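Moderator note: this is an archived Q&A kept for reference. The question asked for a predicted structure of one protein chain; the sequence and the answer are reproduced below.
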Amino acid sequence: MTPIEPFGNVNPDDLPLLTQVVDEEAPDNFLTLTGVNTPEAVTPAPAILAPAVPAPRVFSEQEMQQLLHQLEARLETMITGKLKHHLEQLHQQAVEQTVNELKAGLPELLRDALNTHQESR
């Protein structure tokens, strides 16, 4: 990897300061922030200025209970779905771990089985 070289052989102390870049002898037609022309402001339609915001709705006790029930059902569905996904992942990890442990221990189990079979003869 090649290192990044500085811009030429310029000493940073030799670079001009921002106040030295634009001096007092700037041309008269040079635009400055105060010299920027702005188009006439367009007056937006009243609907854009103040959009109609409906007053908050007041719910009856029955509607509140129904909304609460719907919220609980929705939360239960979401949480159950997440839990199911995590349980499936954990189950898959457990199966893989068990298979790997069985593969690792299989040679020893086979040796023990062969030794037991030969000793019983």
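Archived answer notes: The radius of gyration is 39 Å.
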